[in-house]
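Feature request, filed as a ticket because there's no other form

It would be nice if the structure record came with a short human-readable summary line next to the C-alpha cells. Right now we just get the raw output. Example of a typical job, pasted below so the devs can see what we mean:
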Amino acid sequence: MTQCRAISSCTSLNLFPHASRTDLSGKAATSLPLHELGVKAGGHSIAHCSSKNLAPIRINKFAIRAVIASDKESIPAGVTEGKVLRKKLDKVVLAYSGGLDTSVIVPWLRENYGCEVVCFTADVGQGIKELEGLEEKAKASGACQLVVKDLKEEFVKDYIFPCLRAGAIYERKYLLGTSMARPVIAKAMVDVAREVGADAVSHGCTGKGNDQVRFELTFFALNPELSVVAPWREWEIRGREDAIEYAKKHSIPVPVTKKSIYSRDRNLWHLSHEGDILEDPANEPKEDMYMISVNPEDAPDQPEKVKIGIDAGLPVSVDGEKLSPASLLSKLNEIGKRHGIGRIDMVENRLVGMKSRGVYETPGGTILFTAVRELESLTLDRETMQVKDSLALKYAELVYAGRWFDPLRESMDAFMEEITKTTTGSVTLKLFKGSISVAGRESPYSLYRQDISSFESGQIYDQADAAGFIRLYGLPMRVRAMLDKGNLLYGVVQLSRGNLTKTESPSN
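Raw output as currently delivered:
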C-alpha cells in the first residue's frame, strides 16, 4: 500500500524569471528573462546594478543568485543574501523521520541547494507513533510534498526472509535488523525520485556510521545518475544544540519531544539501542531501556510452546495458522516479547573501522532463526550444511556493509534457495524466561532414519563395516604417529606387506 500526501504542489523552483539589471556601461537595461542574461558554461558573468535597490547578480552554470534588498518577500525559497549555492538541484527526495535532524535538513537543503524537498517516510514497522503528525511537521519545515509508503510486507518477504533462509548472522550475534531495513528504504526512495522527477536524494546519516554506506550503495546500484546529499558530512551543525539554534533562526518548529538518552532504530524485526552508558562496555544495560521484551526474570513461570511451519526454508505458519510474512513476524514478536526472548548485548566492528557497543531486542526473529536451523538439522547433509554456514558468514558481511544489490549476494541467494528446497516441515519450540529449547522437529524430507540410527541391528547398516572404515579414516593419524616415533619406514613396510610382526626390524 502506498500513500502519497501532497502538502503543496512541487513545481520547479523559478529563480527570478525576470530581473532588472544594468549593462556593463552603467546604462539601464530592460527587464529580461534570466536565460537571456548571458550564462556562460564553465565560467561566470556578473551583471553590475546601478540601482541602489539591486544587489549584484552572480550567474554561473550551477546557480543564479539575486537578492532584492528592498523586497525580502520576493526572495525565492532557498536563496539567502550573500550566500552561494553549493550546487543547483531541482528536487531532492529526503529520507524523513520528522525528528530534529530531518526537520532541520529540509530548510538546509533549500538554502544550500536552491531545491524543492520531497520528504519520504517508509513504514517498516517502527510503530504508529513514529508516523503521527509527519505531514504537519514536513509542511512546517518547508517541504513541498510528503510521501509515505507501507513497506512492511516487502521488507519481511524480500529482505528479512532471504537472510533468515541464508542463516546470516553478523559477528556471531547480530541478526541484521537495521542492515536489512536500509536497502528497502533506499530502493523506495529511488522509486519516489523517479515518480516525482527528482534529480537527487538525501539522508540524515552521520559520517561515522554504517547507514550512510547502506543508503548510498543502494542509490549507486539502482540509479547512479542521482546526486546524493549527506548534510552531516557537509554542514557546520555539530550537535543537537546547533540544530535547535538553526531551526529557531529559520523559524522551523523544533519537534517537542523528550530526547532519549539512547540512539534507537526500530522496525518490525528489531529494536536497537546505542549511546549513553552503553558506550562503556563495562556497564550493564539498565532494565528501563528495554521496550519490546519483558525482563526474563519477570516472564511467566510456565513455558509456552509454539509450532513454526516452514516451507522451502521460509516460515509460513504459527501453530497451524498460515500468515503473511509481516503478520507472522508480528505474531511471533508478541509471543517472544512476553517471554523475554531475543535480547542481545554485543560489541561489533562497524564498517568504517571503529568498534561500537549495541543492545538489540529481536524477539520474533530469534524464534525464527532457531526454528529454521533446527529443521535444517533434519534436511541438510553434513557437507551441504558446512558450505551453507561458511557462505552465511559472507552473506551477513555483504548485508551489513550495504551490498544488498551486489551480484555476489544475489548469486549466493540463488544458492541458498536451491539447497533449502527440501527444508520443509515444522519445529516446535519451548519458550521459557528468555530461553528457547526444542520440543520437536518434523519433515517429509528428513534425512534422519530411525532404522539406521537405532542401536538395534538393522539391514542397511552392518556394524562390522565400521572396523574397515575406522582403519582407513585413521590412516593419516597412524602414519603421523609412526613418523613421530622415528620408525615411519618400518611402519610403511608393515602396512604395505601386511605380514611383518612388531618384533621384526626393517633391513638397512
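Something like this underneath would help us a lot:
The CA atoms of residues 22 and 28 lie 5 Å apart.
The longest strand covers residues 116-123.
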